[in-house]
Amino acid sequence: MSDANIPSNLKYTSDHEWALVEGKKAVVGITFHAQQTLGDVVYVELPAVGRKVTKGEAFGTVESVKAVSELFSPLSGTIIRVNEDLTAEPETLNSDPYTDGWIIEIEFSDSKELNELLDAAAYAKLLQNS
Amino acid sequence: MTRRTPLNEAHRALGARMVDFAGWDMPVQYSSVIAEHEAVRNGVGLFDVSHMGEVEFAGPGALETVNGLISNDLARIADGQAVYAGLLNEQGGFVDDVVAYRFSPERILICVNASNREKDFAWMKAHARGVAPVDRGDEYAQIAVQGPKAAGLVQRLTKTDTSKIGTYRFAEGEVAGVRCIISRTGYTGEDGFELYCAPDGAVALWTALLDAGQQDGVKPCGLGCRDSLRTEMKYALYGNDIDDSHTALEAGLGWIVKLDKAAFIGKDALVAQKAAGVKRKLVGFELTGAGIPRHGYPILKDGARVGEVTSGTMGPSVKKPIGIGYVPAELASEGSTFDVEIRGRAVPAVVVKTPFLKKP
Question: Which pTM was predicted?
Answer without folding.
Answer: 0.94
